[in-house]
Structure formats: C-alpha cells, structure tokens
Amino acid sequence: MPASSIDIPLEAYLVLAAILFCTGVWGLINSRNAVRVLMSIELMLNAVNINLMAFSSYIDGQQIRGQVFAIFVITVAAAEAAVGLAILLSLYRNRETVDMERFNLLRW
Amino acid sequence: MTIASVTQLICFVALSLTLVLGALGVVLLPNIVYSAFLLAGVFLSVAGLYLLLNASFVAAAQVLVYVGAVNVLILFAIMLVNKKEAMAEIPGLLLRRVLSGAVCLGLFLLLLRVDLTTPWAVPGPTPLGEDATTLIGIHLFSDYLLPFELASVLLLMAMIGAIVLARRDVYSSDVITGEAADQGLIEKERTPLLLESPPRDTTLLEKV
Fold first, then answer.
1. Across the interface, which of B26, B120, B122 has its CB nearest the CB of A39?
2. Is A106 at the interface with chain B, CB within 8 A?
3. pLDDT at residue A4, as a whole number
4. Would the pLDDT of B164 be above 90?
5. Which of 21-80 (A) contact B at CB < 8 A?
6. Do B39 and A18 touch (CB under 8 A)?
7. What are the pLDDT digits (tens) for B125-159?
8. How is chain B split into domains, by residue range?
C-alpha cells in the first residue's frame, strides 16, 4: 500500500489548496496588469485541481474519478488561457494598454 | 516513522513552501516577467504534489500542458504587450487592497473551518499505484466518453477563436457600404498592415 494515505493527512492538501485559491482571488481582484489577472486565474484552477486529486487519492482510491475530472479541468484551462490571451492581445491593440482600470468600455 | 514516510514529509513540506511562496510572488512582484517564471515554479510544484498523490499521468499532463504550453503562452503574451507604461494613480487603492485582503482572509478562514471540521471518510479504499493510468484510459473511453469528445470540440473552438481574435487586421469590408466591418465602432482609426496595395474599388454589389 502506498504510504501517502497514512502519513500526510488529507487536510494538509486541502489547506494548501485553500491558501492557493485565496492568493489567486486576491491577485484577481487587485492586479492592474491584465496578464497577471490571467495568471491568477491559473492559480485558482490549480488549487481546484489539487483538491480534486487529493480527494481522488484519499477517498476514491479505486475509481480515481477525481483524476479524470482534473484532466478535464486542465483541458478547459488550456482553452481558457488561449482565448483569454487572444482577447488580451486584441484589447491591447485597440486600447494600447494592459491597465485593467482603463478597460471600461462596457461599464455603464 | 520509516525512512519512506520521512522522505515523503520532507517532499511535501518543500513543495508546499515552493507553492505558497511562488503564488505570493506571482501576485505581488512588480515585475511581471518574474511573476511568469514563478508561475512555472508553482505549476512544477503542483505536479510534484500530484506525484505524491500517486497520480503520475496527471503529473505528466500538468508539466506538459501547464509548464510547456500555458506558461509559454503567457510569456509570449508578456513579450507582445510589454510596453513600459506608468499606471495612473487611482484614489482609494490602498483601501481597496485592504478590503479585498480581508475578504480573501475571510474566505480562507471559512475554507479552513470546512476542511478541518468535516469528518472526511478517510481512510478510503487503497489507492491504486501505477494502474491509475490504465484506469484513466478506461474511464475516458467508457463512462466519460461524451465529455472526452466534447473536450476535443472545445479545444477546436478555442483554437479557431484564438486565431480569429488575435489575428492582426482582419480586413473584411461591408458588402454594401465598403467600410471596414470589423469592430469599426470601437476600434481606433488605423491603416491595416496587410493592406499595402490599394483595396479593390469595386465591391461585390457593383459587380453584380
């Protein structure tokens, strides 16, 4: 039996993912550079993936549905990054800036 | 404690420290290039955590997709939009940071309480070791077949969408008026780079 389910508790992974997620949320709210906003989103997606993998290994060890979910999350994250960066390039070409405070075209 | 468990604990602590410090660096460092490289470190340490969780296939996928593709994409985006610009001061920035920090701290405390007080059903069944990759393949081609196929369609859509969005100067002119039709209302006036030769002066309507 692999030793990981004995030594490191499940809660350690969950707390780690919570720290990562909250860091990502803070960065998402406070970044003024649009590229950094996308990086924060990647951090949050990784936090979710850590949760899925931890549950998959500790609770669902024989079926590992969490790992399949994590693969789908990785797929969607890759698609999101590609489209997000393309939108960012298009925005930059129109507004000549990456400052989030100046992307207010659709704001009331 | 056996030597294996000590090694595992050391690996976990080292990976966690790299992860947390790297994530803080990603959101806090003023230079965005450093942030991008730290993001690669965060992705790599997440892959290491997956290895600790007996998931070698997902760890490999994490390294290939995130470090190899997403992070390189982010670096290219930084290079393409890397213009030194002085961000204009906005009032109340410090207050905003403190408030959002408080909100994030509250969210973290909530998550911490949920994590630590819920009676998780551990220990569950014995984790699979190296058979996990085979089982993932079986899952993907039996009960998760529809999401798998949908993911391929999603990736195709994302690829086409990214090409269309990021392509420079798609010069499609309105058939009736002959004016540029691509986002003409919101874009600034500019001469398309790919249109060195003068445009055809007969529109489709006139030919008809």
1. B26
2. no
3. 45
4. no
5. 21-27, 29-36, 38-40, 42-43, 46, 49-50, 53-54, 56-65, 67-68, 70-72, 74-80
6. no
7. 887 878 889 999 999 999 999 999 999 999 999 99
8. 9-81, 129-166
- Res B182 pLDDT > 70: no
**Is domain B9-81 classified as CATH 3.40.50.1000?**
no
User: Tokens representing B32?
Assistant: 């965005």
For the record, the structure tokens of B185 come out as 């209302």
Q: Give the model confidence (pLDDT) of A40-82 as tens digits.
A: 999 999 999 999 999 999 998 888 899 999 999 999 999 999 9
| Phi, then psi, of A99 in degrees rounded to 5 | -75, 120
Measured in whole angstroms, the distance separating CA B178 from the mean position of its chain's CA atoms is: 39
Specify the DSSP class assigned to residue B107.
H
What pTM did the predictor assign?
Answer: 0.83
CB–CB contact A2 B165 (8 Å)? no
Which chain B residue shows the shortest CA-CA distance from A31?
Answer: B27
Q: Assess contact for B53 and A66: CB atoms under 8 A.
A: no
Q: What b/e sequence results for B76-87 when a residue is b if at least 16 CB atoms lie within 10 Å of its CB, and e otherwise?
A: ebbeebeeeeee
How far apart, in Å, are the Cα atoms of B22 and each of A23, B148, B159? 10, 32, 29
Closest CA to A49 of A25, A73, A81: A73
What ipTM was assigned to the predicted interfaces of this complex? Answer: 0.91
What domains can you pick out in chain A, each with its CATH number?
10-98 (1.10.287.3510)
Whether residue A23 and residue B27 make contact (CB cut-off 8 A), yes or no, is yes
* Nearest residue in chain B measured CA to CA from A9: B122
